[in-house]
């Protein structure tokens, strides 16, 4: 196994995940099979209980793993299906070592960070790197490892030591270290400053790891004298200093690496030139250029709870990007804090209230994504009502679907107290209930998680046609609450249709509103399986409806199924 380690320095949030994914893309374009591992040095066992404001979205895998959003980048870029074990955390490592200690596996030994924790990290990396993730038999050729955080963080020290030992064990022909760093420009001087990167590399070398490559993040392309200076002080050849400057869209990053011959240099470092094919990134080039040349855009109202940090909805944003590109338009996302739409805001923050409603009314479609807790729920219900009554295309995901059920029950069935058990457990009109198999005492990994089958109840529905007339679909879930099966009959009599259900037929998965251009709610999270070139069906339907392309698509699918 060949290992490519991607570390980061100076500041966090430099784009190590996108860099690691792009390196994987160029290696895959050379005919190699690539897998990836993300190391998160925090003590949480997984990302499931963390606030989106603190750590961005929680990405859900097929096996139900709740992981860091960077694994979403890997899946989208490399078109692979990862497992929960591809995300290593300090919590997982310590948990496994402590379990062994309690069982007596270390009997007589003093259990320590070195060697027991570091050995556990190495064993985990070596084991997971051998697991195929691309649907083929046998292990991958290269494993790209991203170490979260920045070099020098206290919590990442055991991982750095474990990776140093791994490098020593596998040898230099099987290990490549790429250090991602920032080259800032001070406004007054206007000079590209290399000192932060010098200090970062010095810190890394003091810990026993010397980078083979520097991936330098900057606003503008690096100047030649900047590269010379970096080479001189960081002990890295000029040819191995890669510049990842700001680009119009992230699909350009693999092309940026290719233009600097990064693939050849990495292949030489790992002695893979003899087995690699000439790099072929024609599909990526076409995708990046196509998006750059789009002139029309579509306005999408994103009514959510965590709009202050766009990473909270990263996969949703990417799924919209994929769908819009397929429809030959650019996404123009209008972020609306759901609470700003509420009547209370009219008194407390009249300007925000007016702006939110003006933005909502100016959008071509409305999207209400997932979330937890009751903050902003009234605003989401108002957004769903606006979309339903004004024939504006609407997509509700997870909580967004439950919101549309609550709104329909209140407005159409006249059940003024209709609500979810999550927001009002005492209401007499529970239309959304806590799932019987859920836990009310433990939060981590107790939801309905991972890939589940949804069966279409009829082929005569929008969503079945968007899923290419499939009889069933497998999508990823992450929820504790569901539509109350006892009210389904009443809702359907009033006009709502539950066109997708689980295998028992009792759990509602997809709803539609006949007579509306596109009013869809899905209990699952379709954004997690969206890929460049293969957009997610619900998102594609929403954008098609917003741009007037859905009717033609439906006719095409109908003709195809006759």
How does this structure look, described?
The chain has 562 residues and is of the alpha/beta class. It is built from 20 helices and 21 strands. The two termini are 50 Å apart. The relative contact order is 0.11. Keywords: ATP-binding, Glutamine amidotransferase, Ligase, Nucleotide-binding, Pyrimidine biosynthesis. Belongs to the CTP synthase family. It catalyses: UTP + L-glutamine + ATP + H2O = CTP + L-glutamate + ADP + phosphate + 2 H(+). Pathway: Pyrimidine metabolism; CTP biosynthesis via de novo pathway; CTP from UDP: step 2/2.
Concise synopsis of the structure shown:
Helices cover 38% and strands 20% of the residues. It has 20 helices and 21 strands. Helix 12 crosses helix 19.
Q: Would you count the extended β strands for me?
A: 21
- Shape summary: globular
Largest sheet: 9 strands, mixed
Instruction: Note the beta-strand portion.
Output: 15-25%
- List the total number of helices: 20
Spatial gap, N to C terminus? 50 Å
Gyration radius, rounded: 25 Å
Based on helices, strands and strand pairing, what is the structural class? alpha/beta
Order of strands, main sheet, comes to 11-10-12-13-21-20-19-16-17
Q: What percent of the residues sit in helical stretches (DSSP H or I)? A: 25-40%
Mean pLDDT value = 92
Unreliable segments (pLDDT under 50, ≥5 consecutive)? none
InterPro entries: Class_I_gatase-like (IPR029062), CTP_synthase (IPR004468), CTP_synthase_N (IPR017456), GATASE (IPR017926), GATase1_CTP_Synthase (IPR033828), P-loop_NTPase (IPR027417)
Domain Glutamine amidotransferase: 309-543
Family: Belongs to the CTP synthase family.
Protein name: CTP synthase
């Amino acid at each position: 196994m060949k290992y490519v380690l991607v570390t980061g320095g100076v500041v966090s949030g430099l784009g190590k995940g996108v860099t690691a994914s792009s390196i994987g893309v160029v290696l895959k374009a050379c005919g190699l099979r690539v897998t990836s591992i993300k190391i998160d040095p925090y003590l949480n066992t997984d990302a499931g209980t963390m606030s989106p404001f603190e750590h961005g979205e929680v990405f859900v895998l097929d096996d139900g793993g709740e992981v860091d959003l960077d694994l979403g980048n890997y899946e989208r870029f490399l078109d692979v299906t990862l497992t929960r074990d591809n995300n290593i955390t300090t919590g997982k490592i310590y948990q496994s070592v402590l379990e062994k200690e309690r069982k007596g596996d270390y009997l007589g030994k003093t259990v320590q960070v070195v060697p027991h924790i570091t050995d556990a990290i190495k064993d985990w990396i070596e084991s997971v790197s051998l697991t195929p993730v691309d649907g083929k038999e046998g292990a991958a050729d290269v494993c790209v490892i991203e170490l979260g955080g920045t070099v020098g963080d206290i919590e990442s020290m055991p991982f750095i030591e474990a990776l140093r030992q791994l490098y020593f064990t596998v040898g230099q022909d099987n290990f490549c270290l790429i250090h991602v760093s920032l080259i800032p420009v001070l406004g007054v001087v206007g000079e590209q400053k290399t000192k932060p990167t010098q200090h970062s590399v010095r810190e890394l070398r003091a810990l026993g790891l010397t980078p083979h490559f520097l991936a330098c993040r900057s606003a503008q392309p690096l100047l030649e004298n900047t590269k010379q200076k970096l080479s001189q002080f960081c002990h890295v050849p000029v040819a191995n200093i890669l510049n990842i400057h700001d680009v119009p869209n992230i699909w350009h990053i693999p092309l940026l690496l290719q233009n600097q011959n990064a693939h050849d240099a990495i292949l030489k470092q790992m002695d893979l030139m003899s087995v690699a094919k000439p790099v072929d990134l024609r599909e990526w080039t076409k995708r990046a250029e196509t998006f750059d040349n789009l002139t029309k855009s579509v306005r999408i109202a994103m009514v959510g709870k965590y709009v202050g940090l766009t990473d909270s909805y990263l996969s949703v944003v990417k799924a919209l990007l994929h769908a819009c590109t397929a429809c030959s338009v650019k996404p123009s996302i209008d972020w609306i804090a759901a609470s700003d739409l509420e009547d209370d805001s009219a008194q407390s923050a009249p300007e925000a209230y007016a702006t939110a409603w003006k933005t909502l009314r100016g959008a071509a479609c409305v999207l209400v994504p997932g979330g937890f807790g009751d903050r902003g729920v009234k605003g989401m219900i108002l957004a769903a009502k606006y979309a339903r009554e004004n024939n504006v295309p609407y997509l509700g995901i997870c909580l967004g679907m439950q919101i549309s059920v609550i709104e329909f029950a209140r407005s159409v069935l006249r059940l003024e107290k209709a609500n979810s058990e999550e927001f009002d457990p005492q209401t007499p009109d529970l239309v959304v209930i806590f799932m019987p198999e859920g836990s009310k005492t433990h939060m981590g990994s107790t939801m309905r998680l991972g890939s589940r089958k949804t069966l279409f109840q009829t082929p005569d529905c929008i969503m079945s046609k968007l899923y290419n007339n499939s009889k069933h679909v497998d999508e990823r879930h992450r929820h504790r609450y569901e539509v109350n099966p006892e009210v389904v009959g009443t809702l359907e009599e009033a006009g709502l249709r539950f066109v997708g259900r689980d295998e028992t037929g009792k759990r509602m998965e997809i709803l539609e509103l006949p007579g509306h251009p596109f009013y869809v709610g899905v209990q699952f999270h379709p954004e997690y399986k969206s890929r460049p070139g293969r957009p997610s069906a619900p998102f594609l339907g929403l954008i098609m409806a917003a741009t007037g392309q859905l009717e033609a698509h439906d006719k095409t699918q109908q003709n195809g199924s006759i």
